[in-house]
Structures
1.
Amino acid sequence: MKNIPWQERPKNCNDVMWRYSENPIIDRYAIPTSNSIFNSAVVPFEDGFAGVFRCDNRAVQMNIFAGFSKDAIHWNINHEPITMQTGNTQLVHSDYRYDPRVTFIEDRYWITWCNGYEGAPTIGLAYTFDFKEFYQCENAFLPFNRNGVLFPQKINGKYAMLSRPSDNGHTPFGDIYISYSPDMKYWGEHRCVMKVTPFADSAWQCTKIGAGAVPILTKEGWLLLYHGVIQTCNGFRYSMGGAILDKNQPDKVLYRSQPYLLAPAAPYELAGDVPNVVFPCAALHSEEEDKLAVYYGAADTVVSMAFGRLSEVVKFIKENSLS
Amino acid sequence: MKNIPWQERPKNCNDVMWRYSENPIIDRYAIPTSNSIFNSAVVPFEDGFAGVFRCDNRAVQMNIFAGFSKDAIHWNINHEPITMQTGNTQLVHSDYRYDPRVTFIEDRYWITWCNGYEGAPTIGLAYTFDFKEFYQCENAFLPFNRNGVLFPQKINGKYAMLSRPSDNGHTPFGDIYISYSPDMKYWGEHRCVMKVTPFADSAWQCTKIGAGAVPILTKEGWLLLYHGVIQTCNGFRYSMGGAILDKNQPDKVLYRSQPYLLAPAAPYELAGDVPNVVFPCAALHSEEEDKLAVYYGAADTVVSMAFGRLSEVVKFIKENSLS
Amino acid sequence: MKNIPWQERPKNCNDVMWRYSENPIIDRYAIPTSNSIFNSAVVPFEDGFAGVFRCDNRAVQMNIFAGFSKDAIHWNINHEPITMQTGNTQLVHSDYRYDPRVTFIEDRYWITWCNGYEGAPTIGLAYTFDFKEFYQCENAFLPFNRNGVLFPQKINGKYAMLSRPSDNGHTPFGDIYISYSPDMKYWGEHRCVMKVTPFADSAWQCTKIGAGAVPILTKEGWLLLYHGVIQTCNGFRYSMGGAILDKNQPDKVLYRSQPYLLAPAAPYELAGDVPNVVFPCAALHSEEEDKLAVYYGAADTVVSMAFGRLSEVVKFIKENSLS
Amino acid sequence: MKNIPWQERPKNCNDVMWRYSENPIIDRYAIPTSNSIFNSAVVPFEDGFAGVFRCDNRAVQMNIFAGFSKDAIHWNINHEPITMQTGNTQLVHSDYRYDPRVTFIEDRYWITWCNGYEGAPTIGLAYTFDFKEFYQCENAFLPFNRNGVLFPQKINGKYAMLSRPSDNGHTPFGDIYISYSPDMKYWGEHRCVMKVTPFADSAWQCTKIGAGAVPILTKEGWLLLYHGVIQTCNGFRYSMGGAILDKNQPDKVLYRSQPYLLAPAAPYELAGDVPNVVFPCAALHSEEEDKLAVYYGAADTVVSMAFGRLSEVVKFIKENSLS
Amino acid sequence: MKNIPWQERPKNCNDVMWRYSENPIIDRYAIPTSNSIFNSAVVPFEDGFAGVFRCDNRAVQMNIFAGFSKDAIHWNINHEPITMQTGNTQLVHSDYRYDPRVTFIEDRYWITWCNGYEGAPTIGLAYTFDFKEFYQCENAFLPFNRNGVLFPQKINGKYAMLSRPSDNGHTPFGDIYISYSPDMKYWGEHRCVMKVTPFADSAWQCTKIGAGAVPILTKEGWLLLYHGVIQTCNGFRYSMGGAILDKNQPDKVLYRSQPYLLAPAAPYELAGDVPNVVFPCAALHSEEEDKLAVYYGAADTVVSMAFGRLSEVVKFIKENSLS
Amino acid sequence: MKNIPWQERPKNCNDVMWRYSENPIIDRYAIPTSNSIFNSAVVPFEDGFAGVFRCDNRAVQMNIFAGFSKDAIHWNINHEPITMQTGNTQLVHSDYRYDPRVTFIEDRYWITWCNGYEGAPTIGLAYTFDFKEFYQCENAFLPFNRNGVLFPQKINGKYAMLSRPSDNGHTPFGDIYISYSPDMKYWGEHRCVMKVTPFADSAWQCTKIGAGAVPILTKEGWLLLYHGVIQTCNGFRYSMGGAILDKNQPDKVLYRSQPYLLAPAAPYELAGDVPNVVFPCAALHSEEEDKLAVYYGAADTVVSMAFGRLSEVVKFIKENSLS
């Protein structure tokens, strides 16, 4: 991929990833009804980019909206939420929708999100060809689940999805699992991929973890950007880490960063509706240009970006891996 | 079915179901290693009966054991737990196993239970032809789940299972869901069947509910015996209720008992390892003889039985149904 | 009062109060629909006795029922709950009703109970002349409140009620307050009467306390029988204590028993729907015959009685009073 | 009323209410002993304005102070807290005092606040003619209660007060009730006015709500500005909404805003002693000039102001009302 | 030791330990003021036996009392609690005292108990020569601590004490530690001895554990009888297990029973002030006669006994040891 | 001491202590691996200053690092954590290390810190002569403990340490105790020094308190700077107070500040990894120059400084003392 949004590493910065100097790229009030816009996903689309955005309105109702951009930094987000048509199910139903991800597989774009079904969160699933017409499919799993992220290609002939089984509240636990499907409707072969770390080994990811961006296939395996959470005496703190999963058997973790890649420190990450949150949901990359651009929600309030060299990020994870 | 275990309603008893006068039928120490035997399932087998029993040992490790009986009241339970061979998976793994149910479908007996996988409870699945050789299959769902109960026949060409998504502790919430599978390996089409009731409507089932015995097909639909829980200031109290589900669309509840059918009152239900528990896991019935015999765990310590006239139980549920 | 129900102190018993040997006097299934009958109140009525009884049905819905007796021990309880007509309000409304008390003042019997209003517990208030027609009045207070108990005569020209402000759950705190009203409609002059004790002083009443029976006027002042609660590692334990309040200024506690008068020890108190509960709601007394007969709920399941010599109980409280 | 403090809507602002550009108007250290000054109330007084202010001192003891202003923006707050004389009671007692409101009725100014009585919060009540001499009355209710707000005139011949029954901690629940009194001493006829909303309908007010400013009589009915709370994974977030209550029967809600009117977004609202708090306690208005000026506590640290057109606010509530 | 209290194993009993048929040996009301007598310790003394007993009075104040017996089964317990003189400290102070143990070392009897110091539980320490005069020493540790148990002889020239660091409530965690002292005043060299087990390995001891009886020196090492706790959905359940510690380095666990030795099953263990408690505090043994007699509190209400063959108990622990 | 870092009180500032205008003095990323640097301790050393710093790395592992400075404001912190050699124990073991204090006694510098032992926090102890070689000693106490602070000289011939017994989580309770040792190995004579205050007396220190800087000997006694915590509805808030302890019997509190000396208000205190934290760990002082310079962690993220006149601080504590 070319035309990837990019800003070089600042002078005197030695970090493996760095923030965009114009952060946040999307303000909380960017559409007329919004209270906050964050935890959103983007992909290359036609000659530019498309995305699915979490916009909470001023009744603090959570919903997902389509948006378009020429440069992947300046976005036009629709003022009306996405409406769904029937995909592989008659069940087109959502009490609420949040934290979308978007994955292109074969011939279409798949959207996963946290879907309110009978008041309980689970993984919603839909596809689109054009970001205008969306086709909702069966929920992937039973409640309670969040952070469903599809791999961008079939693995051993099956679709593969990461997710985080949880409960119905502000869950203080959560590990990453993988599940497979022959048809995007029936799911099985559930395997545990990564668990939270012992406090003493890597405390930023000791309370819960969840998949972030769609995994990126590198020579080393799948690069998974994920969030990890620590519970301080003043609530949860969300940071971003990275892992390398085996190419053909992705429940096998080859490397996993002991240090975080990015953690709340900028003012727009430290203060907002939920202080101290860095929550990645998408990434653009160019292997050719060795670029990685990550989109993350900041403080559950705005969308921000961070950049890194793809090869450096992979190398950093390998060299700083939990044993 | 004939030869159903039976005892007539006591004089002066007007209740729709009544306890067996020789309860408990299985003592907590019935096998040499057991601390308690409860929450167990039985089925007709050859010219008698077979069953799968939850026996916690004196390390309070939970496991399941096969057993046999001529009269369905006096049981010989194996002294060694069930061992598994590979069914449709290489993953023959259980941190722990508890609360089994047994269902005969087509040509074999299917066992479901709460299966510890990576320390997290989910629904284990296995089959047997003879209660000697057991073949473990893929776990049906992601954690966290309990009380998986299969229907005794395919519905609309698919296997159907009830379950209760939950979390990793003594969950104070839980509704009954149904899921379908074409092949006992991949599961989807998850639907909510019944939720807990408002406190003011039927308090004994206001905290959590879970499927109990394998559903029984009657003229009115599927008779589901289930447990309901209320949280008192001294902990949980488990009682048994009944519902009638639509024959062809069993996520549709036709009737559901507002009063309980049986609630803790006998000494062996009020005191034991967990006081105040009536927990049904199996039922034998004869439509011809109009008999229903329910097996339930009492106080998480012993196995007991209760009887009723099948037609009266169905009628009672209809006439005392929650609107 | 004569004809008070009575049984002499057993030989070898040195306790200030003792249990009736035929306890429980009312079984949990005494009326066809009941799951449990407990926490109930009785008064002399015509040539015998009348009462208001808490009967939870088998949907575990809580309601109050009238009943009648010749000897105050054997009771006929109506099979239908009390229905209300309008008293001093149009608001005749109860989500649920439990833990009634009955007080005769001037020309009528007043009933107080815990009344569910908009899902929140507060003090319901009604009167009757004949235990057939009941007239519901304004709720005495805002939610959240329980254990409202009226004094049997006006104090300084005003009606007076004890109550225990609390919250909407299984409240782990609670003190006794008094409030006054000129007209049984508007309430004010709220004063704190008694608080829980420090753990080291009298642990059985260190978590919460609530008024029990209607206060009895003695030469020493008002004798208040109340319940106290300790939280053990297996839940709450409810016992009965006694206090003497100043005759003219009843927010002034003259004496208060450091030891309990009665605590769970009998089998029907140790096991039941809520183990370890002794909960007094009424008392009959004869100053002339020096008799006291207390009615208490046992294990939230049945009604039991305990007896004592009125003078001895008062003396015991004085001599064992918390400083 | 004329002379209302005012600042026009900023250009490019489409919001129904907007912040004062010089916020906060009162700094946390505005008097020598203060740690924070917030949640305070103001009224027109003589040729200027008077107010009652919550000032926590540097021992973080909560108390209320009188203050005066010519323009309602720049305030002189007394350095000593308000002292009380006896009003309709001898009980002049406060463990602590916080969150005052002020209402002019007939001939005097009434102050309500959260009053610590025997360690428990309830509604304190006092009146003054001159903001120099204050006369404390009976607490309006039993504990536990907060956010008592009087209507500025009698309704059907009785005084009327809104309040929020709660418990003794950081209550995670709370609805708005109304109570009436013939004499400001005895209170009754308690009715539920508004409850929290389902999460899916209007999440910002799904955990607890409480009356804010003294209701304003408009042609549509009583305009009630109130606070609503959502519990995020990092604690409570307080926002401001509006409702229209029926003029003659104010427990009847005619309209209620689904979106909030103002929610934490400015730096002084996002950071402070308690982050993410917008808490209205008073409003000035001029129907003639169509102006509304709201005083609110920000982050439990400072006093801020927001403005709106009265007619627009009412219209906004009607057009964005919860069904 | 001879004259050990004893009752042979019942016929048909295959358990390694069995209950005394006349249990409980001490009733809850055995002294005039007692509400309950349990968790108590006995030792051989002169030509009979002496003991220190936990008697909670009817204010549920916890205290310790001396008692004497000829046969170690029938006891005369003093009606007044133990009073203390100064030992190695001026601090003779106890808010409350409970769960005593008694150990004879060299020339005197040492008593340890849970001692309330500034409202916080820690380990109290005293000695006596005659069970009439008691000399209180420095508390062994800082709060919060419980279940301090001394070894009956010095180890490597130092006194040694087991204890369970904990917190100030109904602690849901707790491991056994050992500490050493040159002089019974200053303590150090703290080492972890045993931790709770993973749920899947031995659930009855997965929540907290604490030393029970004074360790018994056998050929295999120190036999430690201890309690283990599991948290069920209806509270804690306390059982008894056994471990063998290295003779010279007792923080080294040689064997530890995976199954329990005794768990609540008898009626007096299942019901009482705290249901489901077996809590050992003392043991008598005769290596010569191969007898072991254990004293344990049942249901926090009474004192009971269980017997076993010393050699069989040691063998059982070795053969059923956690790896 | 001379050369104390210093900045005069700002004009118009009347506070007893004031912040350094260049705060924070140490940035969160001051060493390459750090996520945050805070809660650190400094002492005069040779012709400048040395310190021990808490640096959490980007795996959020907590560790302690040595550092050096000429002016006590600009610091060079080592990039590698402190390594330990054996002091008075073979147990050189730390799961984690945080919140160090440094005290010079007689001939060496003693370091105390919160030390992870078997996963449980307790007080680690080490000494150094040169801040290059460190010698780890026995942990001072059993778990669970935090905030161990040594006095700078023996008291009555014994070493003396303040500490805060606690539990294994984000403890919502905690008082300050003192313990003595003849040899820095065995500890005893534990005494309670100060407890949390009642909410109504001084709310900022009503939840937990802990020693901060090494006590400073003044003419009035030991000046102890400590932290106090209040629990708001959005978590804990840490402020700094001061107390004067008796010179020879330091468990005797002579004076204790009712108001705080410094509380979170600056931006770097209000936002960071844990908002609203002021946590003192060290102080430099010159009695001659009447100067006091305090080092405190801000928001668990950076190190900041505050200044005051030593005599004024003592006077302030005396004049604003809790009775």
2.
Amino acid sequence: MIIDCHGHYTTAPPQHDAWRKAQLAAFNDRTTLPAVPTMSDDEIRETIEANQLKLQRERGADLTIFSPRASAMAPHQGDEAVSQAWSRGNNDLIKRVVDLYPQNFVGVCQLPQSPGAPIANSIAELKRCVEELGFVGCNLNPDPSGGHFDSPPLYDRFWHPFFEAMVELDVPAMIHVSGSCNPAFHATGAYYINADTTAFMQFIEGDLFKDFPDLRLIIPHGGGAVPYHWGRYRGLADMLKRPLLSEHVMRNVYFDTCVYHQPGIDLLFEVIDVKNILFGSEMVGAVRGIDPQTGFYFDDTKRYIDALDISAQAKRDVFEMNARRVYPRLDAILKARGL
Amino acid sequence: MIIDCHGHYTTAPPQHDAWRKAQLAAFNDRTTLPAVPTMSDDEIRETIEANQLKLQRERGADLTIFSPRASAMAPHQGDEAVSQAWSRGNNDLIKRVVDLYPQNFVGVCQLPQSPGAPIANSIAELKRCVEELGFVGCNLNPDPSGGHFDSPPLYDRFWHPFFEAMVELDVPAMIHVSGSCNPAFHATGAYYINADTTAFMQFIEGDLFKDFPDLRLIIPHGGGAVPYHWGRYRGLADMLKRPLLSEHVMRNVYFDTCVYHQPGIDLLFEVIDVKNILFGSEMVGAVRGIDPQTGFYFDDTKRYIDALDISAQAKRDVFEMNARRVYPRLDAILKARGL
């Protein structure tokens, strides 16, 4: 079984985006927020079958851990009430996709974060999504400001109430920022990668996993810059008198395979233990074109892994077993189906 | 000849740091800024011979392109007048090192940037350092705020006056941030790498090198996350309908080899043309320890390049000829010596 741990609903029907626009307009005009728009199952099917499902079939993935469009989470737009309504609407839409294609998708939720708001305010939506909607994890935004990086580091006690809830629910989080409102940062070309790199370094600096030994966090986009600079991070841990990364960070942190060329994937597998790598494609996502050097889609990351000279067991771990370990609620769903 | 393009004077005599402290204290107290402290040639010699010169000899480098300590440039501390005095003092100190060891060091200057100040205000110090002190380049800080990334992107016209001066003087800049005042960013573990990645993406987004075809910029730390995500950047250039990176960016941009493990260096040379790579070590710098996996210093980057299976000509280019091409004033100095 091939589980893609990183897929976004980037192709929702147009009334979903129109609703967001109306919502932000209402916020600016201080009028009542608009109600969630109606959309038929067929409208949703159309957007999924022409995109995510088509690509799953073409590329040979079986199941995608599916979440709302990351760049549109945009907690820096509107206020906390707007973010609550938008998150709820987004998560409910993911739930509809999962209900239409339960074999192909499992849900991961967006959180109603808002700059300056306590992270505890996101716990209720996490619980609703996990306990009522059957979701298996969440996307946690380390910088709800949209590019100012003014939240406390992830090891700060600020985040503890949420991590406690995650551990209690036994769900992991993917650390994932949203769109950038900072002109210095292109969202998918700089902001995402910077946030990934930053999170990892924060894990080195702090003692988060001493406080939460059962917490599991996925750093997307192949771990940002980290595998390429693995020597730097090992060296910095040493200079900062932190334990070895294998003990201090890598019992709790996982990287996905959203790295869009063979040499990058080769490096990832050379320096990072297979147990810490989850197959992911980020599709339909950041980079949608065909690589002229290979003739295949940049984000068809399964091809790069297929090409690796690693054992069949290692491939099975990356494609399936690691995800089932990191997302135990997904494992339970699959086991209930006899898988 | 082995030219290290990236070395900082991180080991200056203690009165230099004491001067900085007094300077910032005077700024806070609104009193007169203190005068540059006296230090003897012997005091300078001692700090260089025990550190940079010792390591040059041990590791087999001949000449270091040498600049003030990057993390201490800190243009976000004090105001522009403080930054002017501090930059001038730092650059004059580099000049003293170069005069003491002209065979071993050539100068690159810090700029008196200050958050919000026009970059044109840094031109005079650049000219002084190049024309009067014989420096061959500069370190340009894309984020003088120290971690807020609130300056215009590097393709913005904001930066044009400075790039015009660089082209006129025929000197390159290394794009290098300083210390971080943002608790989210560890300086050498997150901020540096993020700034590198961000700069590269800005070059993709803009048309800087159409405006300045002769501009040469070095992105340090192996180009941040860029080589690891080379497929993403090729794909984003395509999605954004930019020209091929080889034409759009890589005629003007160079990466150094400050990547502290063999697999990272292997990747760098696999995806980036040799003509765009300059040998650099960042020593004595970010990571000072010995890699327990190899028994050698993490930042002894020459070893990684020596181990590459590339031609002797490629090695000569990376160790010497590329630096002479990117820093023509260095080339002129060496030619005048018959080298």
